[in-house]
Structure formats: structure tokens, C-alpha cells
Design a protein that fits this description.
mainly alpha; 5 helices
Length: about 140
């Protein structure tokens, strides 16, 4: 569980480091602020939903469905809510570029989280049990 969380955090930080140069070249310090804030906004709920998902993978199908539905709502609520608050209350974030950073990091963290959930040891352990026939 710790490994996947570390990979997620490291992956998002690496993506931000790669994106920081273009952010600096386009918007200067404001670009670094917007991209870093977008990365952190997307990282926090992604870590929570990843850890929750790793636990749900060993649970019942109902628990997996709950994770799928509620983790989406949690992730979208935190990211969208936080981005709206920043956009409305902080003048430095009142640029369209901020929304592009949010969308980019949201999609990136979602993709990385999905890969980590699908290739985790918990998923491999839970997989064969579901392939049993109903009559067995």
C-alpha cells in the first residue's frame, strides 16, 4: 500500500517538475504558482482515493462499487471546489491557464491512480476468486 502511494506522490511531483519549466517560460512565477497549486489540489484526493481503493480491492463487489462512485465524487468535489475557491478569491489564479493546469493534473493523477490500482498486488490476489463459476 505504501509503495503505490509513494509512486503516486513521486509521479505527480515528477510531472510538476517537468511542467515547471514551460510554466515558468509562459507565465513566470505565476505559472509556477498555478501549476504547483493544481498539482497539489489533484494530489491530495488522489492519495486518499488510492489508499481507499487498495483496501476496497480486497473487499466485496459492493465495496468496489462504492469506491468507484464515491471516490469519483470525492476527487471531483475537492479538485473542482478548491479550484473554484482559488479562482474566485485569489487574483493570481483568475486566468484560463489555471484551469488548463487543473485539467491536466487531474487527468494525469487519475490515469496514474487507475494504473496503480489495476496493477497492485491486491488486485491480483482478488482477481482469481471472481473467475469461479456460480455452480462451484
Amino acid at each position: 500500500m505504501r509503495t503505490q502511494g509513494g509512486v503516486l506522490i513521486g509521479g505527480v511531483l515528477f510531472a510538476w517538475l517537468v511542467a515547471s519549466y514551460p510554466a515558468w517560460k509562459v507565465d513566470g512565477a505565476a505559472g509556477l504558482l498555478m501549476s504547483g497549486s493544481a498539482a497539489l489540489l489533484c494530489l491530495a484526493p488522489a492519495v486518499v482515493t488510492l489508499l481507499w481503493g487498495l483496501r476496497a480491492m480486497t473487499g466485496t463487489p459492493a465495496e468496489r462499487l462504492q469506491h468507484a462512485v464515491f471516490s469519483t465524487l470525492l476527487r471531483m468535489g475537492v479538485v473542482l471546489g478548491g479550484a473554484v475557491v482559488l479562482y474566485v478569491s485569489v487574483p493570481a489564479f483568475q486566468k484560463n491557464a489555471f484551469w488548463l493546469w487543473v485539467i491536466g493534473f487531474y487527468m494525469g493523477t487519475l490515469a496514474l491512480e487507475t494504473v496503480l490500482l489495476n496493477y497492485s498486488p491486491a488486485t491480483r490476489a482478488a482477481g482469481p476468486a471472481e473467475h469461479k463459476s456460480a455452480g462451484a
